[in-house]
Every structure is written in C-alpha cells, then in structure tokens.
Amino acid sequence: MAQPQELEKPDYLTEVLTALDDGADESLRVLFADLHPAEIANVLEGIPASKRPKVWAHVPAELKGGTLLELSDSVRADLAPLMDEAAVLAAARELDIDDIADLLPELSDEAIAEVLASLDKQNRQRLDAVLSYPDDTAGGLMNVDAVTLRENITLEVVLRYLRRRGELPENTDKLFVVDRHDRFLGELRTNTLLTSDPQLRVAQVMEREAVTFPALTPQREIAAAFEDYDLVSAAVVDEDNHLLGRITVDDAVDVMREEAEHSLMASAGFTEQEDVLAPVLRSSRHRAVWLGVNLFTAFTAAWVISLFETTISKVVILAALMPIVASMGGNAGIQTLTIVIRGLALGTVTSANARRVLVKELLVGAVNGMVWACAVGLVVLLWQHDVLLAAVIAGAMVINLGFAALMGVLVPIVIGRLGIDPPLASGVILTTVTDVVGFFVFLGLASLILI
Amino acid sequence: MAQPQELEKPDYLTEVLTALDDGADESLRVLFADLHPAEIANVLEGIPASKRPKVWAHVPAELKGGTLLELSDSVRADLAPLMDEAAVLAAARELDIDDIADLLPELSDEAIAEVLASLDKQNRQRLDAVLSYPDDTAGGLMNVDAVTLRENITLEVVLRYLRRRGELPENTDKLFVVDRHDRFLGELRTNTLLTSDPQLRVAQVMEREAVTFPALTPQREIAAAFEDYDLVSAAVVDEDNHLLGRITVDDAVDVMREEAEHSLMASAGFTEQEDVLAPVLRSSRHRAVWLGVNLFTAFTAAWVISLFETTISKVVILAALMPIVASMGGNAGIQTLTIVIRGLALGTVTSANARRVLVKELLVGAVNGMVWACAVGLVVLLWQHDVLLAAVIAGAMVINLGFAALMGVLVPIVIGRLGIDPPLASGVILTTVTDVVGFFVFLGLASLILI
C-alpha cells in the first residue's frame, strides 16, 4: 500500500523573513501579488508583531480585505486601523456584504462613513439587515446575495434569466423559490436545472422540504446542521418565513474552525484568540488573569496542607506522597470532564441521560480507583515498608477518584446551565476540587491512622 | 438589537429512552423512519451501550449504512457486526463507493464478499482504487463519481449530455475536463454552464488553474485547502496527473471535525474515540494507560521531594508551599504549549520562525515569572512573616516559569519531529518537567538558604 508523504509546500514565511532582513521590501509586493489571502494571513501571523505593519503596507490593496478576514482577531485589530480611507474602500469593493459587516467594527468612523457612502441604496439596506443581528447568529453570518425565483415559471425561463444575469454568487448550489411577498417556498438546485427538461415548471422540480435557519439561530447549530445534512448553502428566514439571505458552507466551515479553536484555547485559559508572535507585554497580560485564578486555587490547596503541619512534621514522607493522590484525581477527573464536555457539545449528553452518564462515570471512577489504589499501595509498601501508610494512600486514592468522577460530570453540566462556557472554567474548578480533596483526605486519613 | 435564543430542538433521546423503558419497541421504528442518519447516530451514542443492539435492530435497513458512517469508531465497531449479510447489502446499496470503503474494515469476511459480489465490474475497480490508498489521504477519501468532459465540445452538447444522464452526484459544483488519456486539464463550473452562451466551447470557459490533490496528500492538508480556498469539490490526481476521483466538502468537513476532536481528546490522553456511555470496564481500560503514565510521573516527583525529607522536617511549611511553584509552572507551560501546538497545526510556527517564537515565549515567561514571583512572595511574607522564605519561593517561581516557557516551545516541536502526535504526549511531558523542576528548585533553594 502506498504511504502518505508530506508534500513540499512553498515556504513563503522564510521568503518574507529573509526579504525583511535584507531590506528587500519591494520583493514582498511581487510575492504577495501571487498569493491567496489565506496564505498572506498565515505569513502575517508568523512574523513578529513589530514587523507586521511594514509587511502589511506591501499587501496589494485588492487583497487586503480578504486577508483581514483570514487573520486572527488580535492581528486584525492591529492592522485594520493602519489602512487609510482609500485603502479601506478598495478592500471593501472586493468583499461580500456579510464580510464587510464583519470588518466594520475594526474601522475608524471616517472609514465606515466612506464605505457606507460607496454602497448603493440596495446594498446599504442589505448591510443594515446583516448588522441588525448578532454576528454569531444566522442573521449576522448570512450573505445577502441569494438568487430568487417564482414557482410558476418554466426552467427554460430560469435558464434564460441566468444567462442574461451572468455569473452566479460563490457557492450557489440552489436558487430560492419565493412568493410575491418574498416568503420562502422551497429551493431549486442548480444541478436539477441542468439535468431537467426545460419545459417543466419550477413548482414541479423544486424541493419544498428544505433546511432553513431562522435569523436568530446560534452559529453552533448552523455549523452542526451543515455537517449533518452535508449542505452547501441554506436559506435564512425571519419569523414570518420571509427570505432574508443565505448561509454558505464557507461560513459554516469558519464557524467550525472557530468553535474548535475556542475549545482548545479555552481549556488553557485563553478567552480570546492569541497570536503566536504577539508583543511580549500583551501576551503576558492575556495570560495573567488565568495564572491569577490558578494562584488562588494553589494557595487554597496550600492552606489545606498547612492544616496538617503537625502530621507532616511527624511523618515527613507524607509530603512526598500527597501530590500523587492529588494528581491522579486531577487526571482522572479531566478525562471524565473531556468526555462530558464533548458529549454536551455533540448533543449526546442531555438532561435525558445525564443521570446514566453520572452512574457510568462513578462506576468507571470506582473501578479505576480500586485498580490504581492497589498499584499505588503496592509501590508505597515496597518503597516505605509501611502497611498502614500504603493503606492510607490507597484509601485516599479511591475516595479522590470517586470525587473526580462526580465533579467531572457535574461541573460542566452545572456551569453550562449557569451560562458559563464549559471548556474555560471546568478544568480549573475540577482540579481545585481534586487537589483540595486529595490533600485533605490523604492527610486527614494519615492523621487518624498513622499518628 | 435582537438577542440569540436557543431554539427548541425535538428531544429524540428522551423519546427513545422512554420507549425503551416502556418496552414500546415498535414505536422506535416509526420514529427512526423520519430521522436523518446523523440524528439516529446521536440517539445511539446517547443511550447505554447495553441497550444499543436492541435499538439498532429497529433502525430501518436503508438508513443503517448512513447511520454507521456518523457513529464514533467504537460504537460503529460494536454495531456493524450485528448486521446479517442481507442487511449489509441493503445498507451498501445506499452508499457511495468511498463510504463503502470506510465501512469494509468493520464487516465480517462473508459480508465483505457479499458486498463485493453485489458491485458491477466498474464499481469494483473503483472500490479497489480507493482501498489502495491509506484512508487518511486524498486517495482514501475520494469519491469516484466525478463527471468528466472533453475540452473541444460545446456547452450545448454538455447540457444535452447532462439532461440525458439525469441527476448529478451530490456536491457537484464542477465537472472535470480531461484529455483522452484521462489526464486532468481543468474544471468547468456547473454555474458557468448555466450562465454562459451554449455555443461556446468547454475550452473557452473552463478554468485551467485549479486546486487538485495528489492521491497521497494527507487529509489535514486537504481540510486546510478546502477552508482556505472555499472549495466545494476538487480533483484527485495520480503522479502523472490522471484524474482518479474527487474530494467533496462534506468529506473535508468530516476531517476537520475529526482533527479538532482528536486534539481535544488527545490532550486528555485518549488515543481513540471514546463514547460517552461505553461499557464501564472498556472505559476503565481505555483510561488506564494514561493514568499509568501519570502515575509514573507522579512517583518521579514524589521521589524528588523525598530527597529533601530532612529539609521539610525542619521547615514543614515548605510542604504546603511547594505545590504552588509546581502548579504555576504547569499552568504557564500549558499556555505556551497550547499556542505553539496551534501554531504548528495552522502553519504559523515553522522552522523559519521557531527561534523567534522561543525568544518571545521566554520573555513572556520572564515577565510573568517576575510578576507572579512578587505576588507569591508577598502573600507568603504576609502569611508566614519570613522574608527568606518569601525570597526562596519567588526565586523558584522565576526559574520554574522560565523552564515552563522553554519546554512549552521545545516539547511540541521536538516530539513532532520524532513523529509523535503533539497534543497527546506534550502535556504530560511538560507537567512532569515543571513538577520535577518546581519541587527540586524550591526545596533545593530552601535547603541552601533556610537551613
């Protein structure tokens, strides 16, 4: 069987860094003219923050809009304000209305005024429509370039209309059928149009059962629907079923990437996109809150330990062994937590089966607790030749792994209900509990049994 | 501005669990007949493993193939073998060749033989083509249903051909133009076909600059290209540029989801998909390896602490304070690690700028080290009224956060070069280092200065 191989990708980052070091700025403009905005964005993310403005100045005006859309939030916020009004207008001309709506918050008031003035009445109304919905809902994400039809015309007429109209918007796999009040009736796939008898009427070949999104559908549900139903585009409608616009698969893919990244970053305590070569002080500041929260929990654990100073002073080896109990609890708990957070996101954990998931995880915690309690007890017995000490650490392990399972299920469910983002806060709450319980139970049992 | 709202989704999981409890099995068949395979898969994932075979028996035969594709690996491996040969054949009839290739590994030898016998010669050759490539490459992912054209015919002829052919494969946004040796020449968008003058020839309107994937392109790069270039479909070619098949956006979306999930699960030590209601013993076993690895690192840290038993017996408060140094190092290191792993995955961290990223993270580590060393020192001073102790913990913090930054950058880069999956192993290696260094430096400094 053939083996996968890493393909040689052109190394634009090295080229740009070398050009910067050599002061060969003009070669940047030549290079960028051939690149896709996504590639230019990648280069900008990969060079030090201090050098980005200089490189940005060499990105061709007509690619700047697309590049901004591909940048992470913080790099975008740094670079967008550097564009003068002419540059903003040139960039906006290349973008869809929904993309312009995404960029407006980063622009100066003057630039916004210029962009608005450059749009015709219809596009200004469309932009207003997009801006009137939160940007993480169907209304905020939608494109306003849907092609619409009436149901009583023949495909022949549709074909003639499309030829006269010329080019269709990107990712158009269907046209939307509406009544004269612009109410959504169904969709006509462009491929149906290609393969059907032109004498048929739209009403005869359109699909009336279609996935549509009310304007306030949260973006997470939109991405899930695109994945589950393999959509390329879908209509966005208001509460009276009027067609407002359409969502395309590229928007859904961006949402998926954003959500996946958010979970990953949130589990390390980042609440916003963090760029890999951000200025040092900004990075330090971004991380400070999280380290502060962790410091608080670490001092809580330290305080619990300090309650047992007398015990530790009599049996010093307890100090060496106590982190084992805490860390095994933390690791087992994080495993449960990860499974539950994923289940909540996918919809396989709901209030209908939360109790069953809890029972299962408690049983897994009990099994793992026994197994690892025996393992740890045995190692401690061989190391310290103390049966009682081995029994104390084994007992503490069983109790802490049980707590870990309990918290691993309950913490994400409870904080999710409180409206807090599970990946961000769950880990730190869980490990605080497993640390505190681990130290307390182990040192407590030791005080009772060994002293 | 309107506010997002959670939309009421029908709660199929509750319905199924209630039907199960009531023994109303027949109502399951009625319910499932109306559901999408993705919804059925979600229900199966959300019920206890022991009850899945019973529910599976009520999934309509024609939906079983699609449902299997949507299930997580472990649930799929449980349920696929329960189908008899007739059921397997019924399921296979509803699937594309590339999807059949995905399911074959789960089937019994008899079932595989039946499926192969049911295909005509052309489809058997197509299946062989897909199976001859690793399943995480373009060749393994591709559909073999591409519609091809020659460049010298008119669009009129293409339109007549398509009408005679009838329905186009799902996600067909372009037809592929090939020469008489089946070599890829370019693509013709179906929308171009709709909007162009039928008298034009394919050669006049086709796009010759197209994104194509060599058969051994790794799936991660395919997903990135679909995201960057907003593709709906793209050609797969062999080393001589012969057209082999096509990748569609639904495959790319599945890869994205898989990769995102993999990173998330791997960071908690899961090497395979874990289902939320798996049997207890299987879950315990899946988690055992990871807990074993962590136990080993915990004992390493315990051993380091035990070297300083004399010191701790003299200044017992050290035992309470030492976890603070270790855990702040671990948290700071995980933050650096997360940024670097993300950068490696996105391509914003490469050998071209790794040194700059390292310098930046060391500076961030130094700044955070100073700031938090002062904070911790101050709290310890107020708590224990001991200037030397405060100085010792502050010094240990600065050193450990520096180490954390160093390891946060180096560990994922080095283990990535060794061919190990960064998210899986990086976290445990990093926290082992920050624990060991944290305990050693803190207790070592204390032994030198306080005793």
What does this structure look like?
Two copies of one chain form a homodimer. With 451 residues, chain A is mainly α. Helix content of chain A is 66%, strand content 6%. Chain A has 22 helices and six strands. In chain A, the strands form two sheets. In chain A, strands 1-2-3 form a three-stranded mixed β-sheet. In chain A, a hairpin with a 5-residue loop joins β5 and β6. In chain A, α7 crosses α9. The longest helix of chain A is centred in the last third of the chain and has 31 residues. The radius of gyration of chain A is 29 Å and the shape is globular. Chain A starts with 11 loop residues before the first helix and ends with a helix. At the A-B interface, α1, α3, α12, α13 and α15 of A face α1, α3, α12, α13 and α15 of B.
Summarize the structure.
Chain A is mainly alpha-helical.
What is the helical fraction of chain A, as a range of percent? 55-70%
Structural class of chain A: mainly alpha
Query: What is the terminal separation of chain A in angstroms?
Result: 65 Å
**Biggest sheet details of chain A:** 3 strands, mixed
The most extensive contact between chains is: A-B, 142 and 142 residues
Give the H and E element order of chain A.
HHHHHHHHHHHEHEEHHEHEEHHHHHHH
Oligomer: homodimer
Main sheet of chain A: which strands, in order across? 1-2-3
Strand content of chain A: 5-15%
Contiguous uncertain segments of 5+ residues of chain A: 1-8
Average pLDDT of chain A: 89
Q: What is the overall number of helices of chain A?
A: 22
